[in-house]
C-alpha cells in the first residue's frame, strides 16, 4: 500500500533567530528515511505552494485487531509508528543542517480509516506545515493538525505484473 502526504501552508524560506536558536535560511522539508544513511525523500522549498510525498509501505493485520504499517519511511515500533518530516536549512555560518522535525503519528489514524486504506491501498494525510508562531511545524502531529483519510472506494492501486 501507499501513504500520500499532502502538505500546504509552508512557512517560507527563513526561520528567524531567537534566544538559543541561530535562525535558518534556504529552508526545505522532506521525508526522512528509517535508515540513518538514507537520503531524504523529495525535498521541497519552504516557500512552495504545496508539497506531496508518496511512500510505499506494508499493512500488517495485528493479532488483536487493527493495522500496523511498516516500510523504509516509517519510524518507531509497533503501536508507536510515525513518519518524520524533517526541516533542513542553512545557518549563519553557511552550514546546512536538520533543525526541526515533525512526527506524523500513525497511531492517531482512526482504525476504520486504517482498515479502509489497507483495503484500498492508499492512506492520505493532509496538513499545514506552519505552526501558530509562523515557524515550520514540529513535534508530534495528530488530528486536528492532520486529517487522515482512505482513498476513495473506487481507488485501486495498480499491482506490478
TrEMBL record:
Pfam families: DUF5990. GO terms for molecular function: monooxygenase activity. InterPro entries: DUF5990 (IPR046032). Keywords: Monooxygenase, Oxidoreductase. This is Monooxygenase. It comes from Streptomyces katrae.
Amino acid at each position: 500500500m501507499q501513504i500520500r502526504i499532502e502538505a500546504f501552508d509552508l512557512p517560507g524560506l527563513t526561520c528567524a533567530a531567537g534566544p538559543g536558536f541561530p535562525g535558518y535560511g534556504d529552508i526545505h522539508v522532506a521525508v526522512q528515511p528509517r535508515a540513518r544513511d538514507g537520503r531524504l525523500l523529495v525535498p521541497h522549498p519552504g516557500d512552495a505552494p504545496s508539497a506531496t510525498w508518496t511512500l510505499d509501505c506494508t499493512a500488517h493485520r495485528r493479532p488483536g485487531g487493527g493495522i500496523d504499517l511498516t516500510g523504509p519511511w516509517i519510524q518507531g515500533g509497533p503501536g508507536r509508528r510515525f513518519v518524520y518530516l524533517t526541516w533542513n536549512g542553512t545557518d549563519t555560518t553557511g552550514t546546512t543542517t536538520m533543525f526541526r522535525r515533525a512526527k506524523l503519528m500513525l497511531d492517531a489514524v482512526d482504525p476504520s480509516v486504517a482498515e479502509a486504506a489497507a483495503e484500498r491501498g492508499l492512506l492520505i494525510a493532509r496538513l499545514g506545515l506552519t505552526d501558530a508562531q509562523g515557524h515550520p511545524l514540529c513535534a508530534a502531529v495528530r488530528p486536528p493538525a492532520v486529517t487522515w483519510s482512505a482513498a476513495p472506494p473506487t481507488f485501486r492501486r495498480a499491482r506490478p505484473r
